[in-house]
C-alpha cells in the first residue's frame, strides 16, 4: 500500500513536469494566433513579427503589483509571450539584471545608488526605464495634534533632537519613530528628499519593511510618526504637510512637493525587441492613465519636472 | 535438456527480480545522493558567503561578534552584530521558559491525568497550532498581544516580550508532542510499581515519570528552541527591529532572522552589507547545528 502510494506520487510529479513542458511548447506554437492589438505598441510597426518567448523580471516589491498587472494584460494581447514577475527587493533585482539572470530588474532607486564602489561598473551597463513615480508623505498617529512639519522639524525628530510632540506645537506626547530598515528604498527616498540627510537608527525606534504593517502600527501607536507612499494613506493616519505643501498628486506632478522617486525598470544594455515592446507598452497612455493611476502610482509621463541621479530637478 | 530449460527459466526469473531490486536501489541511492549534495552545497554556499565579510570586506571578527553598532549604510559603516545575536538568544530563551511548563503540563494532562477525553480534545488542538502559518501568528501578535502589552506595561508594546510570547505559542506544539510521545512510551509497570508502593498520583508524576522522561522532555525543549531561533516572520512583525540591545523587555529590538529578512532583498549581492547578512545566516546555521548536536546527546541518554 505504502509503496503504491509513493509510486503514484512519483508518477504525478513526472506528469506535472511533462505537462508544464507541454504547456510551454503549446504556448510557443500558438503564438501566431490573432494579435490585432500588437500594432498598438509603437515598436511593432516596422516588423510585423509576432512577439514570443519569455521575459523574466524581478526586484522591488513596491513596483511588483504594477508590473504583474501590466504583464498580465500584455500577455493577453500576445499569446506567445510568457512574462514572469518576481519580488525579492530592489537590491535583488539590480544584482540579477546586472548578472543577466533576469531580463528586467525593478528598482525603487537609481542603480548607481545601490551598485556602488566595486560594483559601479555594473551600474553603467544598465539602461534605465522610468515607468512610474511614487510620492512619500510623512504621517502620524491621528491624535498628535500636528498637521504639518517643516523640513528642519522633521530632521530634528528623525535625528532624536525633538522627542515630544509639544515641541512642534502638538500634544504632550512622546514621539515614537516608525522607520524602515537602513537598506529600504522608501527610507532612502524619504531621507534624501524630505530630510536632506542620512539618519542613524535611534534606540527604541521601530523598523518595519512592509507598508501595511507600518500603517497599522502608526495608526495604533500613540505619538507615532513614519512615512508612507501616497497610495497607502487613509483615515487611520494623519498625513502631514511638508513645508506647508500638501502631498497631493497634483503637487507632485507640478514639482511643488519634493518627496518622490521614480520606479525604475532596468535592462542590461539596450533591451531586445520583446522586452522593448513590453517596456514601450508600459509608457502608452492606456497603461499610464489606467493601471498606473489605478494602483496609486503617479504616471511618469505626466510629470512636469524630471530628476537625475544626483537629485537635480529640471522642468521638462 | 529439460534441466537446462528449468535452469534458464530460473535464471531469467532471478534476473527480473534483480532488475527490480537494482531499479529500486538506484532510485533510492539517487534520492539520498541528491539530499546529501543539496545539504553540502547549502552549507558550502552559506559558509563561503558568510566568511567573505571577514576575508573580502576586512571586517574584524571581534567587531562583528562584539560590536554593538550596526550602521551598514552610514558614511563610516560599522557591522556590529551583537544586538541581533543577543536579541535572538533572549527571545528564544524567554520563549522556551514560557512554553516549557505549559507544554509539559499539557502533555501530562493528556497522558496521565485524563488520558481519555483529555487526549481526544487536546491532541487536535495542539496539531492545529502547529499548522497555523507564522504570518498569522505575527498578525495576531501585532493585533492582540502588542496592544495588550502597550496598555499594561510602559513602552509601545512592541519588543522582546511580544516576540517571546508569540514564539512561545509557536513552539508549544513541538514541545508538547515530543513530551507526549515520551510519556506514552514509558513502561506501564514503572507507574504500577510506584502506585503499589502507595505513592499518590502527584508523587508518581513528580518522582517517577518526570525524572525518567527528562532527557526526552529536554529534547522537546531544545527542538522548540531551534524552531524559535530560526523563526523570522512572526518575530519580525512584533519585535520592532531597532538594531540595539534593548534596555527593557518592552523596547524595540532585533533578532538575527529579522535583520536578515529585512535587509536581504534590499541589498545587492556582494556588497559589504549583504555579506554581513550572510555571516549572520552562518551564525544561525551553526546555532542550528549546535541544537541538533544537543538533541543527539540527549537522545543517547534517553534509553530507559
Automatic annotation (TrEMBL), chain A:
Subunit organization: The complex is composed of two ATP-binding proteins (PstB), two transmembrane proteins (PstC and PstA) and a solute-binding protein (PstS).
Similarity annotation: Belongs to the PstS family.
Residue stretches making up the PBP domain: 47-286
Name of protein: Phosphate-binding protein
Subcellular location, principal: membrane
Record PANTHER family: PERIPLASMIC PHOSPHATE BINDING COMPONENT OF PHOSPHATE ABC TRANSPORTER (PTHR30570), PHOSPHATE-BINDING PROTEIN PSTS 1 (PTHR30570:SF4)
GO biological process, one term: phosphate ion transport
Localization per record: Cell membrane
Coiled-coil residues: none
GO CC aspect terms: plasma membrane
InterPro entries, sorted: PBP_domain (IPR024370), Phos-bd (IPR011862), Phosphate_ABC_transporter (IPR050811)
Keywords: Cell membrane, Lipoprotein, Membrane, Palmitate, Phosphate transport, Signal, Transport
Signal sequence extent: 1-20
CDD domains listed in its UniProt record: PBP2_phosphate_like_1
GO molecular function, one term: phosphate ion binding
Topology term for the membrane: Lipid-anchor
Pfam families assigned: PBP_like_2 (PF12849)
Chain's role: Part of the ABC transporter complex PstSACB involved in phosphate import.
